[in-house]
Specification:
- This protein has about 150 residues and is an alpha+beta fold.
- The chain has one domain.
- It is about 20% helix and about 50% strand.
- It contains 2 helices and 8 strands.
- Strands 1-2-7-6-5-8 form a 6-stranded antiparallel beta barrel.
- The longest helix has 20 residues.
């Protein structure tokens, strides 16, 4: 059977559509980590007095919310990280009595003696050296962490 160019394009599109339909059948999870305080220096963000659970939530059409143990979230993310596994995030905090926020790219998550540590690149805004009342929003990214969400 001779395959025409148009037939080949249709076959490729059908394969891509079925793959994207499979992905659409899974929720895309985003995460919120909270901490009582934070420090930032030399591209390292440390969240101190962090909550032991992180909130996971999904976009439409699923609209689900669950909790995942923060230590489990961080260790799975660190173990599963690939060079493309640098999710975007947004951090909100209070510093010197002022609310602040920044858009960041996160990588190399780990738990250290002083809290949760991330290497970050600031994409927009500024991160103060110290702050309190911290919320870190982590955008959806491909990782085995997503497979931990059961409930």
């Amino acid at each position: 059977m001779k395959l025409t160019f148009a037939t080949a394009i249709c076959a490729l599109l059908a394969g891509a559509l079925s793959a994207s339909a499979e992905e659409a059948a899974k929720p895309s999870w985003m995460y919120v980590l909270t901490a009582g305080k934070m420090t930032y220096a030399n591209g390292k963000l440390t969240l101190g007095r962090f909550d032991r659970t992180a909130l996971a939530f999904s976009e439409r059409p699923f609209r689900m919310a669950h909790h995942v143990r923060t230590a489990s979230f961080i260790s799975t993310w660190a173990r599963d990280s690939k060079p493309s596994g640098k999710p975007n995030g947004s951090i909100a905090m209070t510093a010197a009595g002022q609310l602040g926020a920044a858009a960041i790219e996160l990588q190399h998550p780990r738990i250290g003696r002083n809290g949760l540590i991330f290497d970050v690149a600031v994409l927009d805004g500024k991160i103060p050296a110290t702050a309190t009342g911290v919320s870190l929003f982590v955008d959806a990214f491909p990782t085995a962490v997503n497979d931990q969400i059961t409930d």
